[in-house]
Amino acid sequence: MDLGLKGRSAIVCGASRGLGRACAESLAREGVNLVMAARRPDVLELAAKEIRARTGAAIKTVPVDVTTPEGRKVLLTILPDPDILVTNAGGPPPGDFRDWDRAAWIKALDANMLTPIELIKATVDAMIERKFGRIVNITSAAVKAPIDVLGLSNGARAGLTGFVAGLARQVARHNVTINNLLPGPFDTDRLRATMEGQAKAQGVTLDESMARRRDANPAGRFGDPAEFGDACAYFCSAQAGYITGQNLVIDGGAFPGTL
Length: 259
Prior knowledge:
Rossmann fold; seven-stranded parallel beta sheet
């Protein structure tokens, strides 16, 4: 299916690896002109090079930390008025809430709530004027099924979700949509890093811990980042203009609820 995105422009954050990279590649395949942002210039440029080779897309790389005002300023200087914005930042570390001070909470809120809001604020009005805009926030399935040791992430991402729920209804009549993608366990470096702590706590190897997590999923496997990227591309498509303010859980059926 042609998603009607050829020639559109997009900013994709956290685009050098994992789910952000998968979103960038799926959009590139649809003919979107990309600005890929991430902190590590070497990893980012390698990802862009590989995506260019596979898709022929026009790609600019911006090695910045988008969770800082300085990083966002540089990024938005390169592309101030994208048609598509994909926000994404690594989650805060796990732990016990008794150990988190105010600084830890502010850092989590800056990265996983306030940064997406600032990027939306900087780009949404131009989308409204053009009568086209697609904003996709990569959050977490923990927004719907909180994970006790990820309280910083639960809180910050739930705050973003509440904000989006209101704003999405305000801009929908202008063909601007805002939705959230909520990943469960995908085969990424981030998952392995998180599982290392669990493996130590369980007294097993990382491979054994990963196998337990994988086998416990109703799908019997981890997600492929490419699947996530294609879901992102659909949310950005011309056909998805009637979908807004939604939270799509992509987790192989792990979330046990009906709604």
